[in-house]
Write a structure and sequence with these properties.
The complex is a heterodimer of chains A (254) and B (340). Chain A is mainly α and 254 residues long. Chain A is built from twelve helices and no strands. Classes of the chains: A mainly alpha (254), B alpha/beta (340). The complex binds adenosine-5'-triphosphate and magnesium ion (MG). Adenosine-5'-triphosphate binds next to strand 2, helix 1 and helix 11 of chain B.
């Protein structure tokens, strides 16, 4: 058995030595913060239009408005981190170096998760505080009920979506295909299906809708489940995608 | 030692490797020959446990590849030169490999120096020529200082200087007691490098013997004589107990003939000679003969011809057939399949 710390170190070197890592993670930070800041500024200046009629104003959710774009950057990061091995044919070199295929993919997933979580944490905290500063009198405090959990939830959500994408890419063993499936899914299909009556009861169990429950500070009207269940559903998707990736990697010819 | 036991690999309808059993001898260079599509790369991928055999198995000193702890320290391989992330530098590529098998980092710079890539160590491999990529692949094979080295067509894309360099490198590695297993389509190249020879055709083992034996068996020599008085010559040869085969353009060839003796014999009998020359059957031709038989046996295709540019040095029975469909003529179609 190749030593697991050695695999982690090697995977970390792989990750930090390609430009796409910096680009995608940087983009996740910039769009989440940028869009959040923009919406908060607009909300503060036109509060009457933004405040819901018969529910409290969600200052946390408003600051995290950019997550819908940030998660796409995280999806791309997860796809490329796994998929570039397939597009370059390097997967054969990797498997020759570490023939324990499950261990290799788990090592890779751990490194991706750590990088994604670190960047997500920084992103969500900076975004939260920037957003609150821009909301002025309508802002909330990190010490208010559920707010800290929602901020950590946002980071957890971004990390899990990234890992889910990494797992799907390993299952498809093709990064172009994985991008072609995942980006339209998260950007278009899931939000659209989530709005269609009847269909949405199914769409509520998709990883993105379920995972976004972790960001809620107030209980929504007609909410199918809360943050805890949302976390577990999203986590299940993530682990299933990774397990599927391990299974495909183990059985396929490289 | 690499040992193959009835190794078989089927891709759909293609039987790429068909019951291969042989052992790669320790401490020498073994040439692994076969025409395009013979199954050399597939065999090498199975040795590294990248492709799973349909039947049979490979053992490395009795173990499977997957059981090796830190395999790069035991067996180093170059399969495809371009199997490198184009955006990563040569040094970083070797660095992650080294880290995965706990190979000291200074080894990275050592192998870069060894293959002559130190100057471009911090350049992204995107801009590398095929020859440079090939050198990077060789560096990655040497990284773990392994006792077994496996190269799939390492001279591919190398200039003449590079070819000499890799030939010297492989011989040097074997001289250090390492096992070198190298594939090629070119018999002439292998004759210069390899001590042992394994030939396959259509996935089947055709020969497994020391290179010296192959050369002895196949380097038939003859003396070519050309004369305006053929009847007289044949008569004299016959009386001297020699046999002559008719050659091209009305000449004759005396197998294993001695130049000096034949010259003197002609002079004694006042026979005019227009040509008296030694002829050497090329190993390339013997190799093509060997592989073509296996193909004809399987596919019943037309008479095979050599690959473009194969050395055929003025040999007695130089096949001058038109480029008919030959072994591997369907390699392009099969190559497309492989990309899917
Ligand atoms: N992954 C694959 N899927 C389907 N067919 C394959 C695959 N890999 C190889 N083949 C087929 O198996 C046969 C052997 O191919 P292989 O690449 O091993 O030959 P080779 O001896 O290395 O040839 P070359 O000298 O051209 O490199 C060919 O018919 C090839 O098309
Ligand atoms: Mg090949």
């Amino acid at each position: 058995m190749a030593a697991f710390p050695a695999i982690l170190q090697s995977e970390w070197t792989k990750l930090r030595t390609v430009r796409s890592t910096v680009w995608t993670l940087g983009l996740a930070f910039v769009v989440t913060l940028g869009l959040g800041a923009l919406i908060c500024t607009l909300a503060n200046n036109n509060f009457a239009d933004f405040a819901p009629k018969n529910a409290p104003f969600d200052a946390t959710g408003t600051a995290f408005a950019g997550i819908i774009l940030g998660e796409i950057a995280m999806v791309v990061f997860g796809v490329l981190a796994v998929g570039n091995e397939y597009s370059s044919g390097m997967i054969r070199v990797s498997l020759a170096a570490v023939p324990q295929r499950a261990t290799l993919l788990i090592g890779k997933a751990v490194v991706i998760a750590l990088a994604a979580f670190a960047v997500s944490l920084a992103t969500v905290f900076i975004t939260f505080f920037t957003g609150q500063a821009l909301l002025g009198g309508h802002s909330t405090e990190i010490t208010e009920p559920h707010v800290l959990r929602a901020v950590f939830g946002a980071a957890g959500y971004l990390t899990m979506i990234c890992l889910f994408s990494a797992g799907v890419t390993a299952m498809l063993h093709n990064q172009t295909l994985a991008l072609g499936v995942l980006v339209p899914f998260f950007f278009l299909l899931s939000p659209i299906l989530g709005a269609v009556p009847k269909v949405k009861t199914v769409a509520h169990y998709f990883p993105d809708y379920a995972g976004q429950r972790m960001l809620l500070v107030y209980q929504e009207h007609n909410q199918p489940f809360g943050p805890g269940a949302g976390f577990l559903i999203c986590l299940t998707w993530t682990l299933a995608a990774l397990a599927g990736g391990v299974l495909v990697l183990r059985t396929r010819d490289a | 030692m690499i040992e193959l036991h009835g190794l078989t690999k089927r891709y759909g309808d293609t039987l790429a490797v068909d019951g291969l059993s042989f052992a790669v001898p320790r401490g020498v260079v073994t040439g692994f020959l076969g025409p395009n599509g013979a199954g050399k790369s597939t065999t090498m991928r199975m040795i590294l446990d990248l492709d799973r055999p349909t039947a049979g198995r490979v053992t490395l000193d009795g173990r499977r590849y997957g059981q090796l702890a830190e395999p790069l320290r035991y067996i180093g391989a170059l399969l495809e030169a371009k199997a490198v992330h184009p955006g990563r530098t040569a040094r970083d590529h070797l660095l992650w490999m080294a880290q995965s098998n706990r190979i000291p980092t200074h080894r990275v710079d050592e192998v870069l120096e060894l293959v002559g890539l130190s100057a471009v160590a911090r350049k992204r491999s995107r801009g590398f020529s095929l020859g440079m990529s090939q050198r990077l692949g060789i560096a990655s094979a040497l990284l773990g200082n392994p006792e077994i080295l496996m190269f799939d067509e390492p001279v591919n894309g190398l200039d003449p200087e590079g070819i000499v360099w890799i030939r010297t490198l492989m011989k040097g590695l074997a001289a250090e007691g390492r096992t070198v297993f190298v594939s090629s389509h070119l018999m002439s190249e292998m004759a210069l490098t390899a001590d042992h020879l394994v030939v396959i055709g259509r996935g089947r083992l055709l020969a497994d013997l020391p290179m010296a034996d192959f050369i002895k068996q196949n380097s038939r020599s003859a003396v070519r004589v050309r004369t305006p008085q053929p009847e007289l010559l044949l008569d004299v040869l016959h009386r001297a107990g020699l046999h002559a085969d008719p050659g091209p353009d009305g000449c004759y060839e005396v197998p294993d003939g001695d130049l000096a003796f034949l010259g003197e014999l002609a002079a004694d009998h006042r026979i005019t000679l227009h040509e008296l020359s030694p002829q050497q059957a090329s190993l390339e031709e013997a190799f093509m003969q060997m592989t073509s038989e296996s193909v004809e046996y399987h596919a019943g295709s037309a008479r095979p011809v050599g690959p473009a540019g194969a050395a055929v040095d003025g040999s007695p029975a130089a096949p001058s057939a038109p480029p008919a469909p030959a072994w591997g003529s369907d390699w392009q179609a099969r190559g497309k399949q492989k990309e899917n």
